[in-house]
Amino acid sequence: MAAAIRIGISGWRYAPWRGRFYPAGLAQRQELAFASRVLPTIEINGSFYSLQRPSSYEAWHDETPASFVFAVKGPRYITHMRRLNDVRVPLANFLASGVLALREKLGPILWQFPPRMAWDPERFEAFFSLLPRSSAAALKLAREHDDNVAGQAWLHAGGRRRIRHAVEVRDDSFVDPAFIAQLRRHGIALVVADTAKRWPLLEDLTADFVYLRLHGDKELYASGYSRQALAPWAERIAAWRKGRQVRDARLASTVAAKRGAREVFCYFDNDIKVHAPYDAAHLARALDLPTRLEEGARDRFALPAEISLRPARKKKA
Prior knowledge:
Helix content is 28%, strand content 14%. By secondary structure, the protein is an alpha/beta fold.
């Protein structure tokens, strides 16, 4: 049985999108509600720059449809500033900041590492062992928070559910079979990252889901994807969801991944020129997935002035 595919965008608050992707006159506070009714998933990237508040996570949960899923980007304070050194309390602060308030809409947590941060097997082993794999484990660790979230900590598990993690690396030292084996032992997904050839692109399957980030085909964060450029990604996603690997996969390890259907999360991060939501729609169409963008949006260079949300019909009594 094929697993689910969710194709969305990284973030949603971008000034150039207003009047183009977002209808002219749409209030900024309504942008998430709008975007979440066009796309099935979005990465929260504000959490990368600073701890968010529980009230924000609660609002994001309530503003989005029942089937919607968020990915949450882990703090750069952990990955870039402390570089995984002594991060138990910072991780507790992040988990106590309201992440669990997303409840059933909490998808994978993304940990992005900076360029020139080399793979240190022992340091990464300690970090991977610390990451909670359930809401109960996350709550237990969240209770170790310090005064940075005192008085506003969210300490409710929100039900029993899995928590999954993905890592995005940007240094050639990670192109190592031992790193792939480490990820597989922990069930952590290696992010497949298309970065316009700036950083390593690896397609090793290391978990029971796949996390794909498309940052730009030719120019990082800026260039869009033609239908020709999207075709190989559609082929890969179709194979991954059925538990297969493509023949031309770019791999660090010769050890084949375990077979099994894999849920796929795909996020477009080429937001500078308003390509991301339309590229997401084009990729969805290539996979015969429903999209709520108007047919006019098939031309990336003639963006529609508005998008119909077409609310679901009410069932007759």
